[in-house]
């Protein structure tokens, strides 16, 4: 990546610092959560815990249902009321569920954690990225956005590496405490240093009765949502990328929701192996997003990057599902170096097909489409995985559910063949919401 592209990131420094600390704090808990939840819910079980798998599936389903509304809504609010307050709200929600496990890891605490984490995911999962991308689009010109988005997702991967490194070597009893401290620090830093990009000076203060104000806000939200849906369904690029995102997320969210439990059952992996696999993906992803993406994007374009990511995600799912030895999951994880480019490519295509004043709405709408997929996939993946890792499996293929999820990536790849990225025009822009 040339220095000109790095200089384009200077206005984003405070945002990136806060996001990196936040992502490190969240990632360092991922590998230990499997051991904590299975230890509390299924004491004495060494390989499988159907209760934990079903709870995770229920959590993902509930989150997906509510995110269908929350993601587009938060995107609209970020466009209208500022990126900073929405980032502060979404980033701070992760503190409370981890605080519960830091105090106690009993069965009751795990259930309380699942409830609080579900609420946290509804508000923050996906929305942090959408609002951050909208913030970046406010400050970076269109021609440099793909590289900039690649750097943001690359730093996301770097944060995952650091988080997994800390998880690998920190004692388990300190992981949640350190995570909470980092989450609090990232929120305070964002509050102190982030500069708002949405101009709020033109918004007159209005004094009106509570009922009238509530009704007016509901009307604004409905009008904004209706206009957003209308434009995204009439724009061929945005409609096609919505289909691609839906089927991609349907497969990948299904895999990610059960992957660690599958690896624990099939190969006896624990916290250390989980951290190693996640670090394999993270280290390679840093290079592919920060260095490789800006180099290849001018030659193959956003659509070419999207194709490469989809093909890699297909190989990723199939290799995990067909894994025949302990080293195969590490090989499969290496494909994450390429499929991770799916996010910046998608963000760039959406951003370039949308006018600058409505980045949050467009990103939030497509993220809402993805959330539909994320709540549908556990309905199939949780019982299917639980069946095939148990002794009652109809045939010996513990990764059969992951193979089924890979079919969804094939459908996404077919839709990508018809994708034609476009620049926003009068018919492709998203109208601003009507404010009464």
From TrEMBL:
Pfam families: MFS_1
GO molecular function: transmembrane transporter activity
Domain Major facilitator superfamily (MFS) profile: start-end pairs: 1-424
Signal sequence residues: 1-27
Membrane topology recorded in Swiss-Prot or TrEMBL: Multi-pass membrane protein
Keywords, alphabetical: Membrane, Signal, Transmembrane, Transmembrane helix, Transport
CDD domains: MFS_SLC46_TetA_like (cd17330)
Gene Ontology CC: one annotated term: membrane
Main location: membrane
Transmembrane segments: 86-105, 111-134, 146-162, 174-194, 241-262, 274-293, 305-324, 330-350
InterPro entries: MFS, MFS_dom, MFS_trans_sf, Sugar_transporter_CS
Compartment(s): Membrane
Name listed for the protein in its UniProt record: Major facilitator superfamily (MFS) profile domain-containing protein
Organism this protein belongs to: Spirodela intermedia (Intermediate duckweed)
